[in-house]
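anyone seen this seq b4? input:
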Amino acid sequence: MLTRRAGSVLALGLVAMLGWSLAVSASMPSWYDPDRDCQQAFPLAEGNGLRITSSWLPPHATCDFGDGELHQFISPTRSTVLTIVFALTAALTLAGLYFVLRRLTAPAGILRSAEAVDLRGRQLRHLGAGAFLTLLVVGLFAGANVFAAFLGGPPGMLIVALTAIAALSAVAAALDRQLGPLPSTARDSQRRGAVVGCVTIATVFFITAASGNFPFYRIWVAPVGAITYLLVVTVQWSRATRGVRTGLAGVLGADE
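predicted toks r here
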């Protein structure tokens, strides 16, 4: 049951972790004017200067006004609660990831035949629909990353990236199931979808980093993602077709 619901468990874990990162960010001094937040939180504190230190795990933020005392912006109680919430959400996410990986190594299942199927037309529909959906997913990822950077900090950006990989992998696997190479099984589609999601988002990340724009993804990463999808899926079709030809050659040779 959990293996079948692995995607839902992973999605729930990622959403919960994103909520945790937003809660921690909201508990810290604001990124745009942290000095004002510290001064409002501790109006009686005086000193020669203000220094703010913070950490995400455990959630911690202090305001040092130079008066010899560290003022705790996040109370110990809230820090403890947020740390426990992180442990629970991380455990849920890891459980979802574990069951997703188990599904990728599950029995192959029923083999779908390529008999009486226009494989060329099927491949073109697969590439066209997949490139369009990848364009949308990567575009949403680029926009969501901007909000995550400001509202959720580094953990929020990491969680959004993991969510993008999971979402694109799921979309690619579902599309492969409907329009992918034949003969094939459900496990084959899931594996090919996982490869598409990981390779596409990794390519977008490395190209953005190489261009000097990281951590903010520009909108041009959407067509880059679509092109990457086309290349990866084309290679997958080529490998599948070559495997079928090799198998047929072996059968014909055995018949001779």
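The CA atoms of residues 14 and 163 lie 7 Å apart. The longest helix spans residues 221-255. kinda curious what u guys think
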